[in-house]
Amino acid sequence: MKGARQREKPPGAHPYLTVIASFLDEEGAIPKFYRDLNTVLSGAGFSYEMVLIDDGSQDETPSLLEALAEKDEHLTVLFFPITHGKTAAMMAGFDYAQGEIVVTMDGDNQDDPNDIPRLLEKIDEGYDAVSGWRKNRQDRFLSRRLPSFFANKLISFVSGVKLNDYGCALKAYRRSLLADMKLYGEMHRFVPIYAKLAGARVAEVPVNHFPRLTGRSKVGAERVIKVVLDLIVVKFLQQYLVNPIYFMGGFGLFCIGSGVVAFLVATYLKVFEGGSYIGTPLPLLSITCVLLGGVSILVGLLAEVMTRSYYESQGKKTYIVGRCFRGKKSKEV
Q1: Same structural domain for residues 220 and 269?
Q2: In sequence order, which residues have a C-beta less than 8 Å from that of residue 249 and are 6 or more positions away?
Q3: Structure confidence by residue, pLDDT tens digits, 187-198
Q4: Are β-strands 129-133 and 101-106 bridged in parallel, bridged antiparallel, or unpaired?
């Protein structure tokens, strides 16, 4: 509830809100970004902090961020010596964030800081993760908006988490969701899916989007390949992390079945059509499929052993308890 927000930050207490943004060669965008964001947060009436990450910039971005940090006690700046990418920057922000609620956004001034209160209002309604939707996106149609449209449809279909705009950086999360979350590759856009896997309530709200006025986009056409590959990983983690044998074993049985069918067809051709085993590639295909299937099943068994070692050695649970009810007492866990 709004009334529960921490209006002032007592000594040693954590702030209510942490805003995370990363920068890569964005010297022209920083003054306006900081001015607009600081105006919104300073007038919001609750405690806050900003965690800004320089992702190995080669322009004046690091010096500008350092100058801001020297005069603003609400600001923490992390400097990467080399460029690690947006996912690594977001993970660093999560690790350093102290706020009860964490908001992520881009530092190129295309996101509107005035939308942050709208995300927080949705959090107040009981949601755990709120994603922005750039309903009127101000980017090029062919190179940005059209590929994103199909990517969002594909991600929603595969993951089962229906969002219109996975690529929007403006999102809000309860920090408790992020405590054990680890992101790799280019998986920053899939945080709502990880949140859903943890039992979170996920919502989406329309947000403003502005055209880029300074700098240039760091996103290229190769992101489509990265999104597809990362989506395969997310789907595997979503369905088969605890029982990898179901995935590898299923594939192995399919291969063995295909090999048996290929052998039966080759036998039919030899017996009833007067053909020869060496006159068709089917016997070789049969042997290859059976061997591949056997190897897949063995890999699945090895993955099962590794999964059990992972959970048992670290004392991890394969389940999540949201509430515990004993007798007349019910409490959040």
Answers
A1: no
A2: 296, 297, 300
A3: 888 899 888 888
A4: unpaired
